[in-house]
């Protein structure tokens, strides 16, 4: 139910990690709608955890994979984490969550480089 037709298409390595993360998160379906590759704000998020009950926490997950540009390591991961969170804010991926009354909303970024994973979270300001 949570997958989109965008998920298996294409040859981008990010899709493998996205499907993996979707599989890990799908067990949250009793309390959250786990959605992948849907439009929200000004773009299409990677994953969203949309609470079924207003006032419950929600999250946007933006995933990146290193290696395409030849960059690897901690410095490249830090730049990719910042870019992922920036993308989620700039494109307002949390719009759907706000519309459904999710509080608080976490913006999460995960960067994959082979077997290494880096993650960063920030809470969207409550307005």
Description:
With about 130 residues, the protein is α+β, with helices and mostly antiparallel strands. It has three helices and seven strands; from the N terminus they run H-E-E-E-E-E-H-H-E-E. A hairpin with a 6-residue loop joins strand 4 and strand 5. The relative contact order is 0.18. The model has no long low-confidence stretch (mean pLDDT about 85).
Give the termini distance in whole angstroms.
31 Å
Q: What oligomeric state do these chains adopt? A: single chain
Strand content: 25-35%
Query: What global shape is seen?
Result: globular
Overall mean pLDDT score? 87
The major β-sheet equals: 5 strands, mixed
Runs in which pLDDT lies below 50 for 5 or more consecutive residues are none
Beta strands, count: 7
Radius of gyration from the alpha-carbon trace, in angstroms: 14 Å
The helicity comes to 25-40%
Number of helices: 3
Strand order of the largest sheet: 1-4-5-6-7
Order of helices and strands: HEEEEEHHEE
Quickly give the structural class: alpha+beta
């Amino acid at each position: 139910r949570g997958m989109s037709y965008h998920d298996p298409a294409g040859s981008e390595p990010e899709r493998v990690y996205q499907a993996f993360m979707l599989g890990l998160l799908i067990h949250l379906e009793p309390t959250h709608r786990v959605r992948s590759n849907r439009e929200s704000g000004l773009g299409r998020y990677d994953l969203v955890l949309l609470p079924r009950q207003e006032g419950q926490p929600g999250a946007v997950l933006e995933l990146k994979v290193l290696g395409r540009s030849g960059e690897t390591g901690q410095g490249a991961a830090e730049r990719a984490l910042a870019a992922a969170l920036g993308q989620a804010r700039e494109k307002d991926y949390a719009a759907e969550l706000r519309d459904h009354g999710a509080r608080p909303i976490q913006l999460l970024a995960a960067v994959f480089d082979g077997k290494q994973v880096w993650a960063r979270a920030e809470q969207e300001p409550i307005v």
